[in-house]
Specification:
Distance between the termini: 26 Å
Shape: globular
Low-confidence stretches: none
CATH architecture: 3-Layer(aba) Sandwich
Number of strands: 5
Strand content: 15-25%
Strand order of the largest sheet: 2-1-4-3-5
Largest sheet: 5 strands, parallel
Number of helices: 5
Radius of gyration: 14 Å
Number of domains: 1
CATH topology: Alpha/beta knot
Structural class: alpha/beta
Length: 140
């Protein structure tokens, strides 16, 4: 099974947002397992990233891609990462430079989102990528 680890600050507190995240995790459960990891601080974040084989960081300085482009990047990352890929989401101060240098960087939007909303947008895009890869009509 494919596995995605999402390294992100702070836990989800809003029930409606947790329900939405749970829904996408459920939709992905047959194809991609999702794990959330919550670093305590930047030092812990850096240590977590250093252990990962392949990381994609969500960052305002990252590359802008379409959903189809994201699908290609994700599945290429699965191939290169042994069916595992990690995403890193920064906190209010963004990502430490060492993480930016270590990871491939993607930008979800030119707009700024909270890290909690970014989790949801990322999960939806992972689900969309899985559906594009499958050839379903979800993306249409």
């Amino acid at each position: 099974m494919l596995k995605v680890k999402i390294i992100t600050p702070g836990k989800t507190k809003e029930h409606w947002l947790k329900d939405a995240l749970d829904e996408y995790c459920k939709r992905l459960s047959g194809a991609i397992a999702i794990e959330f990891v919550y670093p305590r601080d930047d030092a812990h974040l850096i240590a977590l990233v250093d252990k990962e084989r392949l990381c994609l960081a969500l960052d305002p300085f990252g590359d802008v891609v379409t959903s189809e482009g994201f699908c290609k990047i994700l599945y290429k990352a699965f191939e290169e990462g042994g069916s595992r890929v990690s995403f890193v989401i920064g906190g209010p101060e963004g990502l430490p430079d060492v993480v930016r240098k270590r990871c491939n960087m993607l930008r979800l939007s030119s707009m700024t989102f909270t890290h909690q909303m970014t989790r949801l947008i990322l999960l939806e895009q992972i689900y969309r990528a899985a559906e594009i890869y499958r050839g379903s009509s979800y993306h249409k």
